[in-house]
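Entry 14. Ran structure prediction on the chain below.
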Amino acid sequence: MMSVTQPLAGTRSILAPGLILALTLIASAELSRTLTVPGEAISAIWPPSGIMLGACLALGSRFLLLLVPALWLWMVGFQDYAPGTGMLVALGQGSGTLAGCWLIRRFWKDNRHVRPVVSQLMLYIRGAVIGGGLSSLVGALVLFRLESPPVMFHDLWLVYWLFDGLGIILFAPATFLILVNEQRFLSDLRCELRRPAIRWWLALAGTLSILALGFSRLTNEAYAPAIGFAYFPLLCWAVLQTRASLTALVIPLFALLYVAFSLHGLAGFPDVRTITDLVGILLVLMGLVIFAQMIAATSLERTRLLQSFRQQANTDFLTGLGNDRALSQMLEARFTRQGQWRASPDWLVYLQVLDFDQLGDLLGYRSTRKLETLLAECLKEAVGPDAMPSRIGDGVYAFVLHSVDMESIRRQVESVYQKFNDQMFAAGDHDTRIRVAAGVIPLDQHARDHNQQLSAVIQAAQLARHDLHRVMIIEDVAGFMARRGELTQRMEVLKRALSEERLELFAQPIRPLGPEPELLSYEILLRLRTESGELLGPGQFLPAAEAFGFMMEIDQWVISRTLRMLADNPEWLAMTRKCSINIAGTTLSSGDIAGFVAAQLEATGVPAGCLSFEITETEQIRRLDVARTVVSEFRRQGCSVSLDDFGTGLATFDYLKSFELDYVKIDGAFIRELETDPYDRSIVRSICEVAGEMGLQTIAEFVEGENVVAMLRELGVDYGQGFGLGRPEPLAAIFAVGSGNTRTITA
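Output, structure tokens:
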């Protein structure tokens, strides 16, 4: 079917296509003379009218400068028209074509998105009725004036009008489709002809033609019309099931066969001997053709509507990118194409804007949507359409990158990451700086299914949130998902234990290396008792809590339970000098923990001076500014703060300057071989000197044996903690009279 497009005459040479069209025009005009009743020099169907209109619509009206002379040449050279008469008729044909072309293109200009049915109606009304009426009027006037045929003028005009109109209806669509995009037309045609259903259709149509012709030659002529009428159902099936390229050829072929069989009395069609008979046949044919073309246009419209629905279903309304449905379908399609994986796989990238909910609260609805559109444009520019970028949630995007090796994918992902992370975007009245995290996995056949691939890349991005650089590339998806599955199981065990109160508080004493005070200092440790009664250490369940962002809940539970137990046991509280509790880096970065601690201290009545918090230097703190504020708030409330695992983390001495601290806990890596390693002794001595200059006290971890205690005391360490000074035991046991942890350190 014809559809809205711009003429191509301005971008293509007029000479070569013009000459081909001119020769086609002359050949079609000459061949059309075979479709007439005996003794009449007319054409029952006039193809040049459709060819000229289709060419003008596709290539521009200046092609008439070649087509009109070609038509004149045919009339003078092949039909023995006088040059003047031939010129008038050719100009009349050109004027009708020009009028029809101008009217149709004007309609296209005013209506950029024209439905196929409406476009087809415009061809009938503005092309066949107005354009064909004008050209046939000029031709009828010329012939009536110069040759004075023995018919009424209006009869002559109406007959010519019918011939012209049929030519336009039949041949303009095919000419237009061929000329507007020849490669696409031929490609679509080849695709259609390779379809088994089309081959069967062609075979059936050919068989019916042979049978109809055969019966018309035999005595059983009554069967021929029945077989001949089977053409119309075949035609209807073809226009419903084939593309526009094949439909545009099938309908004219059907019409030509219909007229040819009628004119020669073949295949059971009625024998046509007069102009009146011919007009009757052509009127029936025109009705059939219009009906078939409207069926085709309606089918095309329905197909485009369904395609539009599918596109809308797979398109994010806000940004125009693909959505989560499109991403899932793409992954499923790629996964099910067995044996088609590249040697170097494509990589799926999951890009997430951090704290997007908070951004929405800050910016408001309109500005947030504006930010999303800006991010989408930036993503399309960064990765291009071949990466199939998709928006699959608020502030969440995904796309596919191809890479020949790991180093290449790292560079590509890093390039995209830098375009987003810590960049300013002007969203409405606000300039917003965003942070992003990215998860990256290979799209290979080793994953179980496409859902596992999507789950893997999401979990990789979740891991990246806790990484300093916030980019996580996973090479072994199956292994990664197996590990995550194990963590998930442990997480479920932890959740059940928390709800069933199977988490238990243990404590390990922290002893001064000088004179023993009467009060106890100890660190709270967490254990999990399984349903079978087995006691699990923190290394067996806390990694799952860290991986799934559950540390905040764990830390709050430990703080609340510890303070409640001390409040419920005043004698324990009276024996406590310092109760030390670990705080995860993610909890410290949230900013909410300081208010929670203040509320718990007030609710339980436990003095803040009894409480100390340990922040772990080996665990990266994602929001250092928030963590500083929290630590300062702890100390303002009266709590003390320790820096745990000092000496082995990424920040080391920088943390001493960043936080307001009271204690430094020296990591056990420098204590275990203190007796034999002089470098460890030098490191411990240096840490103690720096801590002393800053007014901080030191605590040595992993202390075992009296010799180590003596060396630590000599190096200037203030406190010790380890199996040599006291093993972890249930919190109640540490306060029991006679406990092994109440012994005094000997000098």
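The two ends are 101 Å apart (CA to CA). Will compare against last week's run tomorrow.
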